[in-house]
Amino acid sequence: MNERSLWDWEYAFDVLPELVTAFLRLTLGITAAASLIAVVLGLVLALGRRSRIRGISWPVYGLVEFVRSTPIPIQLFFVYYALPATGIRISALMTGIIVLGVHYACYMSEVYRAGIDAVPKGQWEACVALSLPPQRTWRAVVLPQVVRRVLPATGNQIIALFKETPFLIVIGVLEMVTVANQLAAEQYRYIEPITIAGLIFLAASYPTSVVLRRLETHLGY
Amino acid sequence: MLQELIDAGPLFLRGVGITILYTLLAAVSALVVSFVFGLLAMSRSTVVRGVTRAVVEFFRGTSLVVQLLWIFFVLPQLGLRFEAMAAATLAFALNFGAYGSEIVRGAVTSVPKAQWEATVALGMGRVQRMRRVLMPQAIPEMIPPFGNLLVQILKSSSLLFIVGITDLTFEVNQLRFELGSLPAFGIALVVYFVLAQLLLAGMRFWENRAAAKVGRGPRAVTVTADPQAVAHT
Q: Taking CB atoms and an 8 Å cutoff, what residues of chain A touch B78?
């Protein structure tokens, strides 16, 4: 192995297609599916936490705090190994998507909460004065402003989620980093696969965060 | 069940101990990296700022797992061999330090501009200005985001087992056959939750102390007519 050069281009090009395929098929797929859960469930959790009924707001508060302060790998293990004991059996891939989705939904609920709190109080009062029903207050006045405010933060959460897809390695989901790790172990040559995996992450996340920063200044926050 | 739990106790506690040790080691080194990168990012030299920016974006942009694997498996092939503990601390310090440097930079730049100008007018040097005026005001601002980062570090310590370090996650993985998956991972989740809450409580205490030192008092007793003003102080 020692006579091989520091960086073997031939080997790098050998592993590249497999890594890119794994990235496009799994890493991006998992990110998209989990983000969808996070964005939708996050709003539900944020509204639940604002509920005036304590039977709703307290459990939601507890759940959000608990999920946010416990590690994703243990949550993955818990769902993957412990749930089957209660009769629920789901695949590793589904486990990964659900755990990442719910984990980030809890973060998203905080993002929404900040966005909702930022809507000026006068607007709520105006809605009351106009006797708009709560549904219309939310749909026509509050949510359009919330969406604009939470957009950059949502993007950041999705990038963070994206960079945590390799955590699924712990339950053996074949996303890009797991594939890179396996290829590396087969050849006992780690430099190229792991470096390429890192560069693919960088290539995907850096431009997105630049766009988000632009968006943030553009929206004026 | 109870007997098994008692038998598992020592291993479990050892795992908890290693998790705490790593979290503290990683937190302290990440804090150092945060301040170094954060202050360099505010340098007057364009080159220094550019290089710092690139390094920070690099560590923020490539996933932590990749960095961990890189330090563990690639560096030894390049002839750099670290002890597991040192390697993990290095990976965490650089990754979380990159995030932390943004916290430092953000907090220092959030100190009102007039304060900068006043230090210039008083003829203070760069070091004196930082130590006496800017840092004391910036630090209370940094504590809440650093608290969140600390919880992130604690949570990410659960990845150490993939490189063979016997932290809490590793021990729980061993014990799950004796204890059963549900109690083993359930207990682990609760332990992480309790540790995170302890860290956050400590940070809140520190935040109030730091705020009091610059005359802002504990937030709970701030008296003001405008609720928006509280949010911005």
A: 6, 191
